[in-house]
Amino acid sequence: MTINDGLYFATATISLICLVYRGYRRYRTTDARKVLTFIFLNLFLTGFFEVLKDWYISEGFSLASEVRTIETIIYFALHNLLSPCFAYYIVLINGAAKNKGRDYTVWFFTPMAIVQIVLAVTPATNFAYGYDEQGNYYRGPGMIVFYLVALFYFVYLVYSLHKTKNVLKSDYIKGYPIFLGTVVVGIIITLISADFQLEPVTEAVAAVGLMLTIDCNDGLIDIKTGWPNKAWLKMNVRLYDVYKYNYTFITVRFLNLNNYKDSMASSVRNNIVNKLSDLIENAAPDCEIYRYDESTFTVVVSEQLDEEKISEDIINSFGKAIHSDISDIDIRTVISIAKVPEDIESWESHERLIEYVPESANSQLTVLESHDLTFIKRENEIKEALHRAIVNQGFDVFYQPIWERSSGKIVACEALCRLYDSELGSVPPGEFIKIAEKNGMIVDLGYIVFEKVCRAISAHKLWNLGIKKVEINLSPFQLLARGLADRLEKILYKYSVPVNMINFEITETAPNDSRKDFTDVISKLT
Prior knowledge:
Elements: H1 3-25, H2 31-58, H3 64-79, H4 82-93, H5 102-125, E1 129-131, E2 137-139, H6 143-163, H7 176-192, H8 199-215, H9 230-242, E3 247-254, H10 266-283, E4 288-293, E5 296-302, H11 307-317, E6 322-323, E7 328-329, E8 333-340, H12 347-355, E9 365-368, H13 374-392, E10 395-404, E11 409-421, E12 425-427, H14 429-438, H15 442-460, E13 469-474, H16 476-479, H17 484-494, E14 502-506, H18 515-525
Parallel strand pairs: 8-9, 11-13, 13-14
Antiparallel strand pairs: 1-2, 3-5, 3-8, 4-5, 6-7, 10-11, 11-12
């Protein structure tokens, strides 16, 4: 056995093991998984036929020359499909191929078709390769076409990964460049030395890397149902945002499913979950389905599909008892249907929709559509307004006087933060304060308000006007900010404001489990 025979045998063995492993895991079928399965099958056949050919020839069987010619055609026919398949797998994973029409498909696979045409004419012309009278293999001028096409797909693959690099930094797929780099090494070595066929085995190693990184990564898959999980959904939503895709996002949340967790055997409960999963799959064929958590599934419907029919089929699948091995089970279900980007855009807004349960969701089936979800769009708009106001110091502070009855004088005032946005107009504090707390903007907002108050106290010498205290609302989330006391102290010093002029009032949203942290910070402030 030659070194090349060993390399081809390794290629076939690695690929066969991966095919068996993937079959054993029984993951849900997706277009990306179909492509990766084809890559492994391609590599297995490539390695297997090469080893079989060399064995056949070495044994001196008849028609050895014809067998060699046929096997070489098979080799190149299979091998030249790998570069477009690797590239297509990547664009399926990172969202570049989503919602693409026929023109994109034709554009993507035309170079591959050119290679197959060159390959088809080669046996008669020796254009890409041939054998001399002694049976030695040689490369023809047409071989450059094979490598140029492979280079085209590799460049497009790298471009696609680069475009989404900010999303693909997670541990799940940051190894892609390394795995794909092994293919480049194999190609270069094979290009330099035609007698050392390292390329197929490096391609097999790269395919294994792709499989372990995302395709068979349990961190991205819900083991019980086989559907992609929350982590994969989050990644895809962010990828689709990069490409500005339009789609319909449907959430199916089972409100009382966890109530049966302790009262049913796990096998019975898993059977119910699988039935719920099957109902969604049957109602939404060709759609992306995710299991977000124990009680929630989500469906991504491409704009190329009939969204209205799919939504209707999902709705009609629920609102009735689910038959289990024991009895019929009533599952209270909330189905939300949102358009992207009309109703929701960012991952945060997707997450808000998924976890939203209306107070009216007491019936067996509650359906929320675009007109029911305007609050999510409003929250996003306010979030953007808060960001603009923080960048531009755009918050206004008004002072509400506090009158002392015994003296009949105004002795203090309360600082009130107000937000007027150029796009939204006046935004009530009851709206923007909660959103600022939820999105971590309340700390910066608080510093802006505090500095404006200190500047006003210093500029107008409020103590000379009989104002003894200025009350400022302090969010519990601000109290948890690192270095809060030191920064407030620096602002007081900057404007020469006496410490006793400030009176902090902690808002009512303080969580009970953080009282010790609050006490430590308050002791520093006082």
